[in-house]
Amino acid sequence: MKKIVALLLSLLMLLSLAACGNSSSGTGGSSESDRTSHNVAESPSDSGQSAGSGDGSGENSQTSGDSANADAPVVYMTTDISPEGLMKVYEALGVKLTGDNIAVKLSTGEPPASNYLDPDLIRDVVEEVNGTIVECNTAYGGSRSETAMHYQVAEDHGFTDLGRGFVIMDEDGESMILPVEGGQQLSENYVGAHFGDFDGFLVLSHFKGHAMAGFGGAIKNISIGIGSKEGKCLIHTAGRSHTSPWGGNQDAFLESMADAGKSVVDALDGNILFINVMNRLSIDCDCDGNPSEPDIHDIGILASTDPVALDQAYVDLIYQAERNESFVRRMEGQHAEHVLEAGETIGLGSRTYRLENVDD
Fold this sequence. Notes:
By secondary structure, the chain is α/β, with parallel strands linked by helices. The protein has one domain: 3-Layer(aba) Sandwich (Rossmann fold), CATH 3.40.50. It has eleven helices and twelve strands. It has an eight-stranded mixed sheet, sandwiched between helices. Strands 5-6 form a two-stranded antiparallel sheet. A two-stranded antiparallel sheet has the order 8-9. A hairpin with an 8-residue loop joins strand 5 (175-179) and strand 6. The chain is globular. The relative contact order is 0.19.
């Protein structure tokens, strides 16, 4: 009798363990099926916002209902990838950058075949803000690591005759040091020395994958993109090296990008706007001169005053896209969304947003 009872108890224990295993399966990943979009809105936006008003502390990311919808930053979207479409999302922001000297930050793209933004696509908005195209030299070699070569690339790619011309912010190899308030890894951020020449920034980013960051959008463009060579090395290594960008911890690198981005937004006192173009969606960055061909079809152009909300919206759209497998692998392999988590934690922006289609 005792043997029978023991056998029954063993069977019950095995059934219980099996049930526990089934209930926890599938929770370790972030595939589309178990992933929640951070878009909370269907309601119209508040047209009275100003530049920098999208700065969120993450307070609303855990709330729901009408209050969350009202407080979440707006991300404006068009599927019209054209000069007219780009102007439409820019105008939907309803705010203007202030000051006489406005910088337009973009990536000039590594030769010979990277997916940098088409100058004809952005020309109208650059002229609208009377902007100067700005960039910084790279820290990893290539055709844009030295000033003379980089200016030649910018000319070859059509950026030197837009707006008020083109400036490499660290052309003399010098840095301007910005304080990082409340950062997780950095206390200082080294940007190109000419950063201080500009009153405000329009950040034009080509959204794409990235071998190290997982994806590149607005946050990468204002952190790595505005960093001097020394600043890039410090971001990549979480403040450990002023001379080499290699060998850093992945999460610390992503947190450092968020830290650096916040220092830029703080230094500009919110006088900064963000537009991301979602075309030629390769898993490789524009710093790759021979990127992989895209698997995902072009999606659109998005704009916001909040860089975290903007990049989060793009990530959500990638997860919704067809043929997204390679892009998702690239992002998840690099723990890419951690930069958004870090950005929200330190107050760079909010992962919760309201997506508003300006084509309606």
